[in-house]
Amino acid sequence: MLLFALGFLLVILQPSTGQFPRACANVQSLLSKECCPPWDGDGSPCGELSSRGSCQNILLSQAPLGPQFPFSGVDDREDWPSVFYNRTCRCEGNFMGFSCGECKFGFSGPNCTERQVKTRRNIFQLTTSEKNKFLAYLNLAKNIPSQDYVIATGTYTQMNNGSNPMFRDINVYDLFVWMHYYASRDTLLGGSNVWRDIDFAHEAPGFLPWHRVFLLMWERQIQRITGDENFTIPYWDWRDAEDCEVCNDEYMGGRHPTNPNLLSPASIFSSWQVICTRSEEYNSQQGLCSATGEGPIRRNPGNNDKSRTPRLPSSADVEFCLSLTQYESGPMDKMANYSFRNTLEGFADPQTAISNPAQSGLHNALHIYMNGSMSQVQGSANDPIFVLHHAFVDSIFERWLRRHRPMLEVYPAANAPIGHNRENYMVPFIPLYRNGEFFKPSRELGYDYEYLQEPALQSFQDFLTPYLQQARQIWAWLVGAAVFGGIITAVLTGLIRACQKKKGGGTSSEIQPLLIESEDYNNKSYQSNF
């Protein structure tokens, strides 16, 4: 019944957030290299007439990159998004979006001035109704076409440098699968040659900020296509799990009765088609994933290579990882030692923090354990367990941020692998986000985790937040008022004392201050200072 009701939402779609804005996927935009669509509210590019933003040249980071990618000018993702566009909307204040028509994460209201913090909850703490609603929302996203975004089916060169656009429609869920693929795909070098040691979302400092943005965008999109502004992604706390606790038909789909590599026919996910899983085929054709169906979701949890992933992560693994004080170290890739990022991502041993790519720990361990669609990087987001898993990974990142309180400068500004420096824009997001912008506590981005909340403290902070924000906006006036008040106080105090000396002890009771009895008048401590 819920699925039927959600079907009516097909006619009230709201903007999504993702790859190429439909309004910019045309010859004119590509040849002019400008993506500054009009905001629907006033019809002006970037909502400039309403002071929401303006069309500006993109400012690219000039910081040096690491040695992992020894090429230049061969990949559309280099200096993202300059191969396609060098002018986009730059939004003011709390406005955001490819046309400045949205609010930044953590803000709402017509003028984006209302702060909000929503709570992500453990999937096993949801009521039956809440859990069923979440599953229905997932299925809805898989069956609704994105209204504002399309995907590229060819490289910029294959598009004849913009004169022959190659884009196609895609549903909302698969839009995010495609983005994950596009960020992690190999570089096509021509002929049958590819470069595999490149990834704009993994194996480097941007791994955690990139997936944080990915989840925020995915969460907001679900809120919009369903009209449920209170929706948040649930997480699966997999610490010390003995098996895949969500792999049953009540949650994310059980095992097929006759084929252990497939999902149970009783699960709504058994009918889903995966996309972007045939990387070798795309590489041999020197092409991109076109998002056509490539078969059902595959999953066989626990029947993985035990020599690589002998078990699921433990609480002790997580605690050791959180104790690491360095966010990044050394080459800042999967060979980094004593790196919190590399240990959480799973390329370093969760008991020693020494790099060991032959083993898979923490984040990587879950992917390998699922032994199917989720185990191949480029197509891993096809399995809806992906969002539950990465929500919990993000919560561990959040715990580290709260424990160590790093300054922004802790995130590497230079010499990280391509796309991962602090000021690099994340591939393939439009609107543009820099890696460093999401190296901050989640509450500043409008969300929290249920198991990380401190009720009394948080409620007090929530009470104070709007007043502190107002105070920041008018601090200069407050300082001026304080100075002026001090001057007035000094003048009044001087006049009062002068009058007191002039009147002496002969002042009659008729002209004494009304709130001071005559016998208390000479008691200085009774008089209050202004």
TrEMBL record:
Keyword flag Signal: yes
Enzyme Commission numbers on file: 1.14.18.1
GO terms under cellular component: melanosome membrane
Pfam family for this entry, one: Tyrosinase
Biological process (GO), any one: melanin biosynthetic process
EC category: oxidoreductase
Record key words, sorted: Copper, Glycoprotein, Melanin biosynthesis, Membrane, Metal-binding, Monooxygenase, Oxidoreductase, Signal, Transmembrane, Transmembrane helix
Ranges for region Disordered: 287-313
Entry membrane topology: Single-pass type I membrane protein
UniProt cofactor(s): Cu(2+)
Segments traversing the membrane: 474-496
All copies of domain Tyrosinase copper-binding, residue ranges: 202-219, 383-394
Domain of life according to the entry: Eukaryota
Gene Ontology molecular-function annotations: identical protein binding; metal ion binding; tyrosinase activity
Main location: membrane
Localization annotation: Melanosome membrane
Signal peptide: 1-18
Family, per entry: Belongs to the tyrosinase family.
Name of the protein: Tyrosinase
Species the sequence originates in: Vidua chalybeata
